[in-house]
Amino acid sequence: MIRVLLADDQNLVRASFAMLVESAPDMEVVGQAANGKEAVELARSARADVVVMDVRMPELDGIGATRLIAADEDLAGVRVLVLTTYDTDEHVMEALRAGASGFAVKDIRPAELLAAIRTVAGGEALLSPGPTSRLIARALALPPTPVTGGPEGLSDREREVLTLVGRGLNNTEIAEALGLSPLTAKTHVSRIMGKLAARDRAQLVIVAYESGLVIPGR
């Protein structure tokens, strides 16, 4: 069972999400928080697998709560799915920098939300659906960025792979782009995550953007 914690300051929203999550045979709601402070405390006590986190909440907002959860070594296995009505690029990048594994808007379809929770619980990043796709779309519209001067400690091939991860490609697509087998592409991604101490692919995307391997908006 996937243990889900819901954090939102609106009672009706939390109740609706709780009914949806409980309707899934492989999920259960283990707690509900009305603000970010409660979310952090419940993440520690309820041992949730996934926290569905609103951005704007009293006392401590969702970004701050996500940052605290991601920084807590005892909560290393807890993933955060940020869910909000505010779909600005700034919120996307801020949430991912804080340690979120995914970002989606509240008008997501019920089946898509359940799929998003499963994706994040499985250790993957929710990068393609929702507003995050705008960042990747802008990057894909640009000429390929040279992979020189990337993160220290990575080989040229690993910087190439990291660039494609930053552009939203999955392992199969990376393999096709570089003429590799899917298993080899997966191995490269795993090694990069290890070298950069990244929790998941979402953090690799941040590294790709902030290191200049992918430059959106140019």
UniProtKB/TrEMBL annotation:
Residues in Response regulatory domain copies: 3-121
Highest rank taxon of the organism: Bacteria
Keyword terms: DNA-binding, Phosphoprotein, Transcription, Transcription regulation
Name of the protein this chain belongs to: DNA-binding response regulator
Gene3D superfamilies from the UniProt entry: 3.40.50.2300
BP-aspect Gene Ontology terms: phosphorelay signal transduction system; regulation of DNA-templated transcription
SUPFAM superfamilies: C-terminal effector domain of the bipartite response regulators, CheY-like
InterPro entries cross-referenced by the UniProt entry: CheY-like_superfamily, NreC/VraR/RcsB-like_REC, Sig_transdc_resp-reg_C-effctor, Sig_transdc_resp-reg_receiver, Tscrpt_reg_LuxR_C, WalR-like
One Pfam family in the UniProt entry: GerE
Species of provenance: Streptomyces gardneri
GO molecular function: DNA binding
Sequence positions bearing 4-aspartylphosphate: 54
Domain HTH luxR-type per the UniProt entry, residue ranges: 147-212
